[in-house]
Known about the structure:
This protein is mainly alpha-helical.
Amino acid sequence: xxxxxxxxxxxxxxxxxxxSLGKASKLNNGIIKQLFSSTFFFINMTLFNSIMExxxxxxxxxxxxxxxxxxxxxxxxxxxxxxxxxxxxxxxELNQLLDLLSLPKRDLLSSEWTALxxxxxxxxxxQLNHVLSNYRVSQKPLIWKPSPPxxxxxxxxxxx
Length: 160
């Protein structure tokens, strides 16, 4: 198993224990949902930033698909516990990033900047440019160049 697969399984196990403890303690469902909503927000932010800060590790179709499968595991688990609305709301940025990374290469290589920015509207122009500029392909297509220059955007806008 890949290291991130073991970590995701461990994370879900921890989340399951927290959920079970909340139920055993007879916490109000609203409090449990708020706890998981906040937890999923921080998981989203941490994973999104980790992926964006390590393009050499993650910016390829293979890694995008592998991580997407692990995220699906978390989503299925949350659905079983009726927490799927929390994951859907809190994992928007990460899901869009993983959707982009797991896009079939032939589709990605033939997609123009404007089409990609419309397909992944949650990602900022700078985030999209960062992914495309660092994506592992032998030659970057010219159609990946953003329409307006992005030089006025700071690097800090990469991170959510």
